[in-house]
């Protein structure tokens, strides 16, 4: 069998496999990024025109594209509907961008850490991923300048409640980042699945709205605020990129499913959606707060973290780092799941000691128990590591 | 802007653009491959579990995979549910296969003619497409042997009511093709969107069911029999290919939309579906027969064709060939659309004189008028060509 050279870069996700195998009801999972089941809205399918069953346009439903362009303009993104492409979840934006830009060896700029499932298509197409360290208010700017000077094909950023770090770029950093992308003429891909999941107020306009000359793709989804099962996302692109992305979309899957598009259109911009989003924020804020209290109790001495102001995750840094991938099996043995931090880095072995903990899924009443077990697993591993390290070498 | 090398192979489809621009209600279209609007079934969304809104498995819904495996086994395809991957329309199978197999220069074996939208992803990834001429009962076998001997990464065949030629492989050719793929150890991708749209009885088991050693991917869809707007297709693959295709699916769009999967599951294998399919066949058979009569009247002297026993298309060969792409604009000026034959060939300029005419869309009452106009356009062009050719060269 002769596979493409690409396939040699197709990594299996060991962690994904371990977690998938551990989907037992008794496992308390802090691992996923799923919206809370309780907050999936009841949707109505009555009134959907029969024509939504027919083939549709590769660009997406015209009314939905209009609605998305309208929302984006309200955020300050200068665009019209002709720049909107409906995609099969915003994951597809990453596939299309990889096809558009990446040959083996093409440099791609990413945050460190970055979204795990973005690394997958980028590395599949052979990207040379170059990373910029994330600080509490956004990327380290001198590192960003140095990496942009290496002329990556694009930079991929998640500036608002990033998965996994929960970082929201400050206004100052947004301006500085935009200026740097303009200065170096590098295309920006800005991914914003979590923008609407904001708990502590404040809003910062997207970075693409601050660009003057650089090309850009802005991508979002209804997966975090409406229903991920619809697989309806969107991208908005500058006119130099749009026609190419459209043809790549046609070749990939003709068009995005229309029933999901129709459902998304019923919500976008509606009073019902505003109410739902407010309820969602209240619900997640309570869970975030409960998680923060439980973390202070069980992880106060073990780790450091920022309180996330939005999104779905806490990002913990252990005071005594170790390879958190080694914690997964002992944690699952205690019926607790979490996401090790290493896979969120281009160079996993250089970044030990991080854990991503989702706070939307586990009910507050069970939080304490789950985190206590996880803390115990970590302490045990640290003690084992400590005792190994302090043992005198017997052989060699 | 530095795009990938791939983008240099991203062709714009001039014909697609011309046809898209001509979507006026007064245009009688024989161009598309759309199911008749009247035959889109009324679907019921009541009873869909709320959980279908949540993220799902990359493999697809377990029950749907079971149902598809069951149907495939009834066709003679040896498989179980673990080999079924639900895809975002069977177009996505072609994208995943291209990623799995094709580097620039990789040989890929196709029928001549073949499905237009398969050429798109294959050529995008840089395939060297090698073709086997189609005869009335399947591929020309000596040509197939010669091309298989060149060791293509896979062969892509549409053996049942092919788009565009409507050819259905005979039993003998199916056996011979399977034996040749086994002999040369070449992976077979068998695409069967039209299997259920059979008008004149008879059924031949898929070629993959006749393979003994070669790897294979069998792909199908609910787009031609239920609703294309759901974007629900499937592939079934041998176990050596399945895990790789699954990871490519994850990287492409995480999973196929669940609302469409749930809807498809309501139909597959049900009495309601059997009734619908029977109605669909009756409806299309009548349209096929009406088209045949109208063609005999208006194209009897102009073209040759086989009466299609299934599928959605007539494939005409003009007795006096010309580049049928040049007919599109004059036809549209007469409010008639059709699909020129050239783009269905790897080497379009070597295959003038074919037209693909869809018979599912135009109502029988308007058929005669539409075909009469199209015939007139062709005659005019042929006369112009004839007079040009017979004119003595004045200069040069």
Structural class of chain A: alpha/beta
Tell me the CATH topology of the largest domain in chain A.
Aspartate Aminotransferase, domain 2
Number of strands of chain A: 14
Shape of chain A: globular
CATH superfamily of the largest domain in chain A: Type I PLP-dependent aspartate aminotransferase-like (Major domain)
In whole angstroms, how far apart are the ends of chain A? Answer: 45 Å
Unreliable stretches covering 5 or more consecutive residues of chain A:
391-396
Task: Count structural domains of chain A.
Answer: 2
Mean pLDDT of chain A: 93
Largest interface: A-B, 75 and 75 residues
Give a quick rundown of the structure.
Two copies of one chain form a homodimer. In chain A, about 35% of the residues lie in helices and about 15% in strands. Chain A has eleven helices and 14 strands.
